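> Could you send the MotA/TolQ/ExbB proton channel family protein prediction when you get a chance?

Sure thing. Input:
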Amino acid sequence: MHTIVRFFQMGGFFMFPILMVLAAGLAISVERWLHLTRVKKDNSQTWDQLQPVLAAGDFDRARDMVNEDGSTIAQMLSMGLARQGAVRRREDIEIAMEESLMEIIPQLEKRTPYLALLSNIATLFGLLGTIMGLIAAFTAVATASPAEKAALLAASISEAMNCTAFGLMSAIPLLLIHARLTSTTGQIVGSLEMVSVKALNSISTFAKRAY
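Output:
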């Protein structure tokens, strides 16, 4: 702990903005991870219940189920099933679900892009802190005696580099978390698209039988 505190103190003023950026990034990461995990779980449970109902062609019951469910998959299917009894064309039902999906995707991606931005900001703060530290170091060396210059310059540069190191230590995890959250969001969107196709196929199958 003493080493960490010493490392932080040696980095100078810009260590604090980097720390705040890291804290904001981690807060967003935790919130998004919990949200996406909950969405995946709710979608999986909802689809397990809906799939046999749709396969049996009981669309009235399916409409009741999705209207009572708060998951994103139910939100999307409710738009399609609402059109199922009113229109005959598959394209109309498909457009309704695509419209719903366009509303869902921004909610899934919400705040995730900020992680990449915060990662870049942490890196830039680290570089800025190092540059300011080097400016201060060379200013101090200019007034130092020749015998002290080398030792003073080496110590000052070492301290200035702490800011860059901390900036990179903050930026790299945020980038990795951003990539993971983006991948998870893509998986959820892919599963929603797959479900919409399966629901459309079930609706079309029973529509053909009705005629």
